[in-house]
Design brief:
With 257 residues, this protein is an alpha+beta fold. The protein folds into 2 domains: 98 residues; 132 residues, no CATH class. The protein contains 9 helices and 8 strands. The strands form 2 sheets. It has a 6-stranded antiparallel sheet, with helices on both faces. The chain has a two-stranded parallel ribbon with strand order 1-8. The relative contact order is 0.14.
Amino acid sequence: MRILWTRLLLILLVAGAGFALWSNRTALHRMGRDIFAAKDGPGTPAPDPETYSVLSDDLESHRQRLSDAYAAAGSDAERTAILRSARNLLEGALPRLMRCWLGTPWAYEGIAHEPGGGKVACGYFVSSVLQDARFDVEWGRLAQQPSQNILGTFLREDELHIRVGTDYELFLTELQSRGPGIYIVGLDSHVAFLVIPDSGEIRFIHSSGSRPWCVVDEDRESADVLRRSRYRVTGNLTANPNVIARWLMGEKFPTRT
């Protein structure tokens, strides 16, 4: 038993130290870019493909290390702890990847595959971020699906929450009660990310077909597209151990159609 817990502790220490170094490296890289972008003035974020590439590559390096540890784990306790580390890694990385797209222009037929690489529709934004977070998805096919099929590619139907005509504040209160994580949300004719950290502060990150017609990161008060929609379907990707395990092991996510 002592050997088992010693091995588990070493795995978690290596994963935690690696994540801390990764976070510091990418934060410094982004800080330097933001200093120069500030010349454009407030409210005009610039897409950041350079940081995006660093984040994606570093995330993959850490995913592979955790994947090796998961495959070598000798007990359920070890596997559970590694999945927890993997969830923490994803919940730190995904919003950073999303925010590298800020300012990328929206278009209904936009198929940009990286920040600033052209115009991007809402589905292609979601699909690109997930693929570059190293989910093995069918990029174009996933992007073209209705939002419920995008969610169904990762989660079972009974893991989705559908609300029609629900008051906006009631919807958000109910959503927060389900806990933190990275959610996908489908709306009347839109798909987006909802980021809910432990603090409970909701961020709505999406390629917006409304003003300012680009990728934006909005709080609950300014998320007008989310507020106006009568139909809302949500699912928490990172709270699902099966999704985390499949991502960790590099399994394919066939598109639900």
